[in-house]
Amino acid sequence: MKSLSVAMLIVSSIVGVGFASGREIVAIFGMQGKLPFWIIPICIILIFFISLLFLSISRNVHKCGNLNYNQALFGKFGCVADVFSLINSFVIFAAMLSAFAAFSNVKLQTAWGSVHIASLAIGFLGVLIAKLGIEGLIRINTILVPFVIISLTVVPIFAIKRFDFSLNFAISHISQSIVYVGLNMYLASNALFKMNLSKRQTITSASIASMIFGILLTLLVLALNGNPQAFNSSMPILIIAKQYNYFANIVINCTLVSCIFTSLIIAIYNIVEFFKFTKSRFLTGLSALCVAFAISGLGFKNIVTIFYPAIGVVGIVFIIACILSMYRQKNKDCKCK
To answer: Which residues, including other chains, have CB under 8 Å from residue 2's CB and lie 6 or more apart?
Structure first.
């Protein structure tokens, strides 16, 4: 059961609103007008091995009793890694608030202008979840992620008109997949490093998460490649759902909200954990909400354009550093200082 819960946590970090909408996949991989087949096995392999990497590091760090994984990995440079993780979490937090503001468009008129009250509300709910710690995070993901998986399986299946794969391979498919997976897995790293799974549980969690993502990606690729109208839209999955029926449209809208929320609570949890030396997790979360809400004023498109590429690069560097650390420690249980 713990393996399944951790797998759901991994899936929730990757299947965010960008993936669920279809826009992220098209923007990264659809330059030639078709989504290539090869991104599916490449992403499955990357997610499997990066999940193994993070969970194995977590097990080693727990063995030596040093729960500051950045310190264990990077030594005196651990504080630098902590700061990058914090910035990443604030960017994701702000991006999800701005995404929900654009999605809901519920505003409150004040003397200082309009306020996106709906994004504040979902941010506050996220603070309450993050206040519960890692167990609260796992519980909410165990509830929401299965719903996301089912809806992102059923709706694309009915939208598939033909098995249309682009089999042309390019080296860029590998580099694009690395950036995409690195960006999303970096967000999950802090929560995964809190896990303490056995080797068997680690392999099981990584296997389940990578295969679930592989299935969802395959169905999304087939649905989009067979639907040019959806492929070229800003929210492809919404176009697909509207073409199917009204009920599918409602389900997909709920799915996008769920994806926003799961990414949001992971980001808040990371921030609260960074400031765990404070007396109140709740007040820390509220303060983080204020900062992220201010940043969200930039708008979802601007946040993604300005910050996401840099986060992707940092995520890749972080993963490489983790690999090098594991290589240096392969004949030891962990690095204790």
So the answer is: 197, 201
